[in-house]
């Protein structure tokens, strides 16, 4: 895989074809969760032995978060943790939340924001399982949960999950549509008091993003979600659903803002502050559950070529005593619809443009 492709998560091929995914679904639904979990070991072995880009990304990340060279068994554990959460999606999206021991914290703060009746944006990440949010259906059946995702990305998995719960699939806000339609759909949902959930950690080269420190180096984060939150002025709550082994998840909610206000003249610095604050919370939870990181690509978009060759060639763990070099980047990374002059406003056109570029995940 080229360096450019390693940095762009949208160019990674799907891990498995439709037949294998439907086979796992059949085993999980008819054989039970125990039978499904037994299938995860050969799946883990396949990714560990055959998927060099994912192995490289795992090794690079684990080096950062563990503070030492990652061993092969660390990478295997990392991939297996991811596989466990994918299997559990089959049951969660089928409405079988009773199978899981989900321990929540921060619910009071979330309920307070929901009780204001203006809707809430819930920002998640590819750290742990975002599907653990489904537990809210039991605690707040009066609140509809709408999820923003790009149906065109990873179509085999999308079709599989849509088949599990057609009613839920109809509530998805498709991030593959044009920017104005995305923003309008989110606004309509929050105006109706819904909880709108979206993943805000991934940015790809060329898209509107800002760099922020994360695990010792700067990583790019999309700005479109923050522009939308600032335009809608609704509460923002962070959510982290961390897998703890077996059937246990820790679901943590943190009120990030009761309503963002992004002014015209300070927009650049305000966005940088928001992204930096978010990155701090993401790092905090990544250190709490290091094997829950499911960004299997060059997340930091490192300019150090050895950072990726570490994973591709799989040297001995003692080959290097330091993690990949820290890469300093400018305070602002420009992209379409993101870096206007300081006196430019965050009007509907700018927000829609940013949404179109930054919410396709």
TrEMBL record:
<keyword id="KW-0997">Cell inner membrane</keyword>
<protein>
    <submittedName>
        <fullName>Acyltransferase</fullName>
    </submittedName>
</protein>
<dbReference type="InterPro" id="IPR014548">
    <property type="entry name" value="Ac_Trasf"/>
</dbReference>
<dbReference type="InterPro" id="IPR004960">
    <property type="entry name" value="LipA_acyltrans"/>
</dbReference>
<feature type="region of interest" description="Disordered">
    <location>
        <begin position="307"/>
        <end position="361"/>
    </location>
</feature>
<keyword id="KW-0012">Acyltransferase</keyword>
<dbReference type="Pfam" id="PF03279">
    <property type="entry name" value="Lip_A_acyltrans"/>
</dbReference>
<keyword id="KW-0808">Transferase</keyword>
<keyword id="KW-1003">Cell membrane</keyword>
<feature type="compositionally biased region" description="Basic and acidic residues">
    <location>
        <begin position="307"/>
        <end position="334"/>
    </location>
</feature>
<keyword id="KW-0472">Membrane</keyword>
<feature type="compositionally biased region" description="Low complexity">
    <location>
        <begin position="335"/>
        <end position="361"/>
    </location>
</feature>
<dbReference type="GO" id="GO:0016746">
    <property type="term" value="F:acyltransferase activity"/>
</dbReference>
């Amino acid at each position: 895989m080229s360096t450019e492709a390693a940095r762009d998560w949208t160019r990674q091929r799907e891990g498995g074809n439709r037949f294998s995914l439907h086979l796992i679904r059949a085993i999980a639904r008819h054989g039970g969760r125990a039978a499904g979990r037994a299938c995860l070991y050969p799946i883990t072995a396949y990714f560990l032995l055959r998927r060099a880009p994912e192995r490289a990304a795992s090794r690079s990340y684990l080096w950062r978060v563990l503070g030492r060279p990652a061993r092969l068994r660390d990478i295997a554990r990392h991939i297996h943790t991811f596989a466990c959460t994918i299997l559990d999606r089959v049951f969660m999206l089928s409405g079988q939340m009773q199978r899981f021991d989900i321990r929540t914290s921060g619910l009071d703060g979330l309920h307070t924001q929901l009780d204001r009746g203006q809707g809430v944006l819930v920002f998640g990440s590819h750290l742990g399982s975002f599907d653990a949010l489904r537990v809210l259906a039991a605690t707040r059946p009066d609140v509809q949960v709408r999820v923003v995702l790009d149906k065109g990305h990873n179509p085999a998995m999308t079709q599989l999950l849509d088949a599990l719960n057609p009613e839920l699939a109809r509530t998805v806000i498709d991030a593959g549509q044009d920017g104005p339609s995305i923003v309008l759909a989110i606004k309509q949902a929050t105006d109706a008091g819904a909880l709108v959930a979206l993943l805000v950690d991934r940015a790809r080269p060329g898209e509107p993003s800002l760099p922020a420190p994360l695990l010792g180096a700067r990583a790019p984060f999309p700005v479109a979600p923050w522009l939308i939150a600032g335009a809608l002025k609704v509460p923002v709550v962070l959510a982290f659903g961390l897998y703890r082994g077996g059937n246990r998840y820790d679901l943590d909610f943190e009120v990030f803002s009761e309503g963002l206000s992004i002014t015209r003249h300070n927009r650049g610095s305000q966005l940088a502050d928001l992204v930096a604050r978010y990155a701090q919370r993401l790092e905090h939870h990544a250190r709490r559950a290091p094997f829950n990181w499911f960004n299997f690509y060059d997340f930091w978009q490192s300019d150090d070529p050895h950072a990726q060759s570490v994973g591709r060639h799989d040297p001995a763990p003692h080959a290097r005593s330091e993690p990949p070099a820290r890469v300093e980047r400018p305070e602002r990374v420009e992209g379409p619809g993101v870096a206007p002059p300081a006196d430019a406003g965050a009007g509907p056109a700018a927000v829609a443009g940013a949404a179109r570029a930054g919410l396709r995940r």
